Amino acid sequence: MKQKDALRIEIDDMEPAVFEALLHFVYTDSLPDDADNNVAMQHLLVAADRYGLDRLRLLCEAKLCHDIDVPTMDTTLALAEQHHCPHLRGACIGFIASRDVLGAVMETDGFKHLITSCPAIMKEILDKVAAVWSNK
C-alpha cells in the first residue's frame, strides 16, 4: 500500500463541496461565505443531521426558512419532514398558505406530488390556509 493511499478517506453519499462546508463549520462555528445556495444548504442540513451537528443543523434550518420560494418549497418541505425540522416545516406550510403565492404553488408539480404522497401535510396546509384567509 502506498503512503498516499493510506491518507485518503472516502465519505459516501456526500459531495466534496458539502464536506468542505461541514469542515468549515467544525473549525469556525459558522456557515461558509457562499451559504446563499439553497441546494447546498439542503445538503449541508442532511450532513449535519447525519453527523449529529445540532448547531449546524439549526443554522441551516434557519437559513432555509428565509429562502423558501415557489420552485423549492416542495423539496424544502420534504427535507423538513425527513430530518425532523419543525421550524422549517412550519415555515414551508406558512409560505404555501400565504395569499401571495398559493396559486403559483398549486400549479407546481411538487405541490401535486404533495397532495398524493403526504395527505397529513395537506391537511395542515388547508388548516393554515383557512386560518390565514379568515384573518382578511
From TrEMBL:
It comes from the Eukaryota. Coiled coil: none annotated. Residues 73-126 form the BPM/SPOP BACK domain. Pathway: Protein modification; protein ubiquitination. Residues 3-66 form the BTB domain. GO terms for biological process: protein ubiquitination. Belongs to the Tdpoz family. This is BTB domain-containing protein. It comes from Miscanthus lutarioriparius.
